[in-house]
Specification:
Elements: E1 4-8, H1 15-26, E2 29-32, H2 33-46, H3 55-61, E3 65-67, E4 73-75, E5 78-79, H4 81-84, H5 87-97, H6 100-111, E6 119-123, H7 126-130, E7 136-141, H8 144-157, H9 164-180, E8 193-196, H10 202-215
Parallel strand pairs: 1-6, 1-7, 2-6, 7-8
Antiparallel strand pairs: 3-4, 4-5
Helix pairs in contact: 1-10, 2-3, 2-5, 3-6, 5-9, 8-9
Length: 219
């Protein structure tokens, strides 16, 4: 079996950063599943398809995307990094992620990322739906206020405008959608290690995760 480490959690909890750090440390491949939903939303928008239309599932199934080793994302051979991580794209991704047909269309594409020597998969249902047999499952959380502050800092550092109060509201609304959707809601897997990063440094969270991964016999 290909060893898979899953990291689930709400938006802004730091799971993307931790997933990259763990993948680099272990020499594993990396799956940013949220990027696939964001890319699907952008592809639908590019084709002027309403996000509630049935055609969105077909867009997901035929998605023409690729990721560079440095993480840059390409849609139809055009780099979309400048819009991929915006709050608007995230909100669109959250909406289509609640659709069973879109999730089904992307399921096998996500599982195909599990190749030797191993995979670190970052998302919201990696440990519960996509890789339920993964030997090491992690769930990373943090308060909405802290997550909004982290996102605000990230946007400002990238030269983008941001409003902290609005970010808090957007994150809370996204949490509500993700946690209460009928299909694959955002919940920790029963055998996942839950880590609250509200008052922890990245280094402290990484150390706790690696301790758990080793205890599970993954490395």
């Amino acid at each position: 079996m290909i060893p898979v480490i899953t990291i689930d959690g709400p938006s802004g909890s730091g799971k993307g950063t931790l997933a990259r750090r763990l993948a680099e440390q272990l020499g594993f491949h990396l799956l940013d599943s949220g990027a696939l939903y964001r890319l699907t939303a952008l592809a639908a928008q590019k084709r002027n398809i309403d996000l509630e239309a049935p055609e969105v599932a077909a867009v997901a199934q035929s998605l023409n995307v690729r990721f560079d080793p440095d993480g840059a994302a390409y849609l139809d051979d055009a780099c979309v990094d400048s819009v991929l991580r915006t709050e608007q794209t995230g909100a669109m991704a959250s909406k289509i992620a609640a659709r069973p047909d879109v999730r089904a269309a992307l399921l096998e594409r996500q599982r195909a990322f599990a190749t030797a020597p191993g995979l670190v998969a970052d998302g919201r249902d990696m440990g519960t739906v996509v890789f339920p047999d993964a030997p090491a499952k992690l769930f990373l959380d943090a308060s909405a206020q802290i997550r909004a502050e982290r996102r605000y800092k990230q946007l400002i550092e990238n030269g983008l405008s941001a409003n902290l109060a609005a970010l808090v509201e957007e994150i809370q609304a996204r949490d509500d959608r993700d946690r209460n959707r009928a299909v694959a809601p955002l919940v920790p897997a029963e055998d996942a290690l839950v880590v609250d990063s509200t008052h922890l440094s990245i280094e402290a969270v990484e150390a706790r995760m690696m301790e758990f991964i080793r205890a599970q016999g993954v490395v």
